[in-house]
Amino acid sequence: MLFSSKKEKTLLSVCDGEVIPTENIPDDVFSRGILGRGYGIKPKNGKIVSPVDGIVEVVTDTSHAYTVKNSDGLQILIHIGVDTVSLEGKGFNPCVREGQKIKAGDTLCIFDIEKIKQRGIPTETAVLITNDDEIEIVKCKYGTAEAGVTPVLQYRMK
Predict the structure, then answer these.
(1) Rounded to an integer, what distance in angstroms lies between the CA atom of residue 134 and that of residue 85?
(2) For 107-139, what is each residue's pLDDT tens digit?
(3) Is 64 a catalytic residue?
(4) CB burial of residue 39 (10 Å; 0-12, 13-18, 19+)
(5) Which of 1, 69, 89, 150 could serve as 62's disulfide partner, Cβ 3.0–4.6 Å?
(6) In the chain, domain spans
(7) Structure confidence by residue, pLDDT tens digits, 41-55
């Protein structure tokens, strides 16, 4: 077989910032892995990019969350901040639409990080594989990361 299904692949950082374990995201749904496993990141600025090549499956009405599907069939949820749905889309400017093909590093959203901070809302962003039962996470690299450049999560298909 030319391509092994056991080959390790990576998700890149979705923004400039500090990569943290999901357990450190100040929200029970994310920190307990209810929506899936992955990583969290404390954004340094207001730009979110795709962690993989794929297709945009979901852009929420309030533009605070996105789902990208890659060629492995992984569904990757990027949820900007905690309880940012309460902002009703104010301060979020989507740069993609549902069904759009994207490359790793393409901008998904520009958001007003200062507006979120001023409202006292945590900016920690969740990057979760929602169908994580199909993968084995090999390792996650925590610390400083650059959007669309730094490999953060290494996985392989089961």
Answers:
(1) 29
(2) 999 999 999 999 999 999 999 999 989 889 999
(3) no
(4) buried
(5) 89
(6) 8-157
(7) 999 999 999 999 999
**Residue 156: other Cβ atoms inside 10 A:** 15
The closest of 84, 29, 95 to 62, measured between CA atoms, is 84
CB atoms within 10 A of CB 1: 4
From the candidates 15, 22, 79, 82, give the one annotated as an active-site residue: 79
Name the β-bridge partners of 59.
66
pLDDT in tens, 64-93: 999 999 999 999 999 999 999 999 999 999
Region of 6 on the Ramachandran plot (φ > 0 left; ψ -120 to 50 alpha; else beta)? alpha
Closest C-alpha among 29, 30, 12, 10 to residue 21: 30
Q: What residue type is 70 in one-letter code?
A: N
CB 40 within 8 A of CB 127: yes
Which of the four pLDDT bands, split at 50, 70 and 90, describes residue 157? confident
Identify the CATH class of 8-157: mainly beta
For the cut 60, the answer to whether the pLDDT of residue 5 exceeds it is: no
Interatomic CA distance for residues 42 and 17, integer angstroms: 5
